[in-house]
What does this fold into?
Amino acid sequence: MAGTQLTFDIKGLEAATAAINAIGANVDQIYIAAGALVESQTRRRIAQEKTTPDGTPWVAWSESYKKSRKRGQSLLMASGDLLDSIAWTISGEDIEVGSNLIYAAVHQHGSADGTTPARPFLGLSADNENELLELVTGMVAGSLQ
It folds into this structure.
């Protein structure tokens, strides 16, 4: 992805991965489900939550910029292009979630000149991590039945 991305692996679950392999669970299906879940979590953060992964509200628009926005637009949601660009891919043992839009990096990290503050939308909150753990645990338990 050319814009910006978050690459994550589920650290601390090496033993779980070994157990998954030992019972014959389909690890690829778990990666696919995890990638789709994190994409969904990221889209929810952009469209509804308007917070960083740690729960901090995004920096509001400046008053002058706010006046230039059309009715119905909100932080990171003007045309919907950023939201629509969120995608995931599997690279080896990593799941990459991000956007191929060049300006996505500016939203994630802020502009180099400081005129646009960072509004991180990529990352995992504690709730996101719990959802992932529940997903993996549920899929492994389903494999045991």
